[in-house]
Design a protein that fits this description.
mainly alpha; globular; 83% helix; 460 residues
Length: 460
């Protein structure tokens, strides 16, 4: 641990009194977050693994459908993240009353938005799938429709869980969210086993356990957030009312993130429509590959809330020098952990792939695209993902949005068509385009960080 401490410490020193998060405190945040992300990824692998025994058509249908409903999941996450930034800054300033109000308004926004989205998809879901994937095989479309209808019922639960988890992470209490996640994922895995192997329910056998587990987690996190002894408390009375001023503060952070995440996922949906033309084997390889990519990326994903909590509290306290010092430290830590983690995941892939009931051609494609992904995820993603969260935590959300839109929506989409379609590389070209997207995003974020403009923003 001493070697790691020396590797991540910035050259310039910061007085101990202003180091509000010790290495021990950072470790206490990061380890539960990693475990939580790892559990979610393992469940994702278990989902695709179990569904693979229902046939490649079902695997393909679920993977295409995931691209659609994830748009809404990103929207709910953006609301929670925007609220977490505001709450973190109020915690840094020591204003508990405003922190409680912000927490309650996160729930207010999450509840309303998720109910509207659920109603929208229940009415228009089938038409949207037919529009996006007109050329897929009938069996694949049937799996899409079944899975989407069921998981749509989990939208309010997902939004409320994300709101509660964001509040606990803003306090640095990541062990609690980890424990809830463990329980949620145990319910999900057990339900999947019953749905696929006992009931032989195909896509529905995976969708129902997912929906029920999200509702369990949402109820538990909401009850926990109402604890009046916590640094931040959810008040139902505040949550049922609209505070326009606080919603404006949250929306100022959440809206750019929501636009960014929604357009990012829409770009993935467009790419999903492109991938759907490559054939069932490549669709299945992409679906399984995305699950393994998520496993590899979970280290950087785990670092996002750490940046938001640490940088947010430093900025809330008005200490921009400490914020910059922690930005350097956390970026170094993210890079070190990403390299080690991606190397480990890549070493495990040859042992994981034989577990899937897929053809040798599909298995080979999965292995190739995972190698490409992990190389970029180890050395580039720390600058394209966690660093961007640090900029958001300072209030510099518009730059983070525009850089992501340019790199992902424009460049990744363009490169995907060039490599995947015109050069005939298929899903391998899609993986290469994703890596180039991260390189562009990383370059833009590093430039912004070094320029220092992010230090001038005020949220509270």
């Amino acid at each position: 641990m001493q070697v790691i401490s020396r590797l991540i410490e910035p050259e310039n020193t910061l007085p101990k009194a202003r180091q509000i998060f010790s290495n021990k405190a950072l470790r206490a945040m990061i380890i539960p977050l990693l475990i939580e992300q790892l559990l979610q990824m393992i469940v994702g692998i278990a989902d695709t693994l179990m569904v693979s025994y229902a046939g490649e058509a079902t695997v393909s249908g679920v993977s295409l459908d995931t691209m659609v409903y994830t748009i809404f999941i990103y929207l709910f996450t953006a609301i929670a993240t925007g609220g977490a930034v505001v709450v973190s800054q109020y915690l840094g300033s020591g204003d508990k009353k405003k922190a409680d109000l912000a927490a309650s308004q996160i729930y207010h926004m999450a509840g309303i938005v998720s109910l509207v989205c659920m109603a929208l998809m229940l009415v228009l879901g089938r038409s949207i799938l037919s529009l996006l994937y007109p050329s897929v095989e009938p069996e694949v479309m049937e799996a899409c429709r079944t899975y989407l209808w069921i998981v749509t019922l989990s939208f309010p639960a997902n939004a409320l869980y994300n709101a509660g988890a964001a509040l606990y992470r803003s306090m640095g209490r990541t062990r609690t969210t980890m424990m809830v996640s463990i329980a949620m994922n145990l319910i999900n895995v057990a339900g999947n086993a019953v749905g696929i192997f006992v009931l032989h329910a195909g896509a529905a056998g995976v969708a129902w356990p997912t929906t029920l587990s999200w509702w369990f987690a949402a109820i538990v996190m909401t009850i926990l957030c109402m604890n009046r002894q916590s640094q931040v408390t959810l008040h139902l009375g505040m949550a049922l009312k609209t505070s326009r001023e606080m919603i404006r503060r949250i929306t100022r952070i959440a809206f750019p993130s929501a636009v960014e995440n929604t357009l990012f996922q829409l770009a993935k949906v467009v790419l999903g429509a492109l991938i759907a033309t490559f054939g069932t084997s490549q669709i299945a390889a992409n679906g399984i590959g995305q699950t393994l990519w998520s496993l590899a990326a979970c280290m950087c994903v785990s670092m996002n809330p750490v940046f938001i909590t640490v940088i947010g509290q430093c900025m809330g306290a008005g200490d921009t020098e400490a914020a910059d010092w922690y930005m350097k430290k956390l970026v170094r830590l993210s890079l070190l952990l990403a390299v080690l983690w991606n190397a480990l995941v890549l070493a495990l892939v040859p042992a994981i792939l034989p577990l899937y009931s897929i053809t040798s051609e599909t298995r080979h494609l999965v292995f190739v695209i995972v190698i490409i992904h992990n190389t970029f995820a180890a050395f580039v993603q720390p600058f394209a993902m966690p660093l961007s969260s640090g900029l958001r935590a300072s209030g510099d959300v518009k730059f983070a949005m525009w850089s992501s839109l340019f790199a992902t929506v424009v460049c990744r989409t363009l490169f995907s068509f060039v490599f995947g379609l015109w050069m005939g590389m298929g899903v391998v070209g899609i993986a290469l385009a994703m890596g180039l997207d991260w390189c562009i995003k990383a370059g833009l974020d590093i430039w912004r960080w070094k320029k220092g403009t992010w230090k001038t923003f005020k949220i509270i």
